[in-house]
Design a protein that fits this description.
The chain has 6 helices and 6 strands; from the N terminus they run H-H-E-E-E-E-H-H-E-E-H-H.
Amino acid sequence: MQRLLSITLALIFLSSPALVGAADPIASTDACRLRTNRELAREQRLYRVYLFGKKKAEDAEIGNVRYDRDGWAWIKKDDSGTPWRNSHPDHQSLKWSDGVMDANDEHSEIIPIIGIFETKRVMTSELIPYLLQSIRALECRTAALCEASRFSEIQGGNDPVDVGEVQPVGCIEFKDLQTWPECHFAQPEPGIKSQADSRSYCDDISNQLLRRETEQLKLAVEYDAGFRTLLQFAGNFDIFLRELRWPLTGTLRQAVQLIGQLERIPCFLSSCDSAPPIQQ
């Protein structure tokens, strides 16, 4: 009986695949592109937070959209106890309160934060160095992500691998980066076309992102400069009106009183006698 059981177990193990429990590779061109888009979008949102600021969830306007650490989008629908709804069509029944949204926000470590454009009592020209530093930081961070994408191309398996230190040209070192399993094209055999697509896609998308953000930053600077100039002019004009109000009012009152007293002055000209009499 024991011999029969041993033979049965041996047949089971021999008939099973060589890699028992091994998961299918998750890497594909579409999955790699989706992961690239998600990582670059996260950096774009972080960059804009430093430009325009971010309030707590309870102070956010209705219609505001935020993302959690897993990349899920949440939209504020109303002012109820659980105003935040998941935007995914299959998870719209999920509701979060303001406190839960703040705790799970992708920027929970820094919110609330005052943006560069929210700085008061300064001219726009004083903000230019900080704005340039922000767009440069976005450029460095996207370059580091593309380096991680390129390092992922030669990896295999479904687990992320530590990249180590990455230092793009002209940038500081980035540490604690990991590869993207969706871009591990070394399994089961190297995918040359997928690797080439991943490399060119990350570079193209990051360059498009930087060009678009640069143009939008120019537009934001122009608007901010005009708005601050208008506020400065309005403030100075308001001060001018307050200072001019009482002297001008007093002068007009004195002029009215003077006109009323002119009729008391006698007329010694001949034209006064030739004038028609005043009808009573």
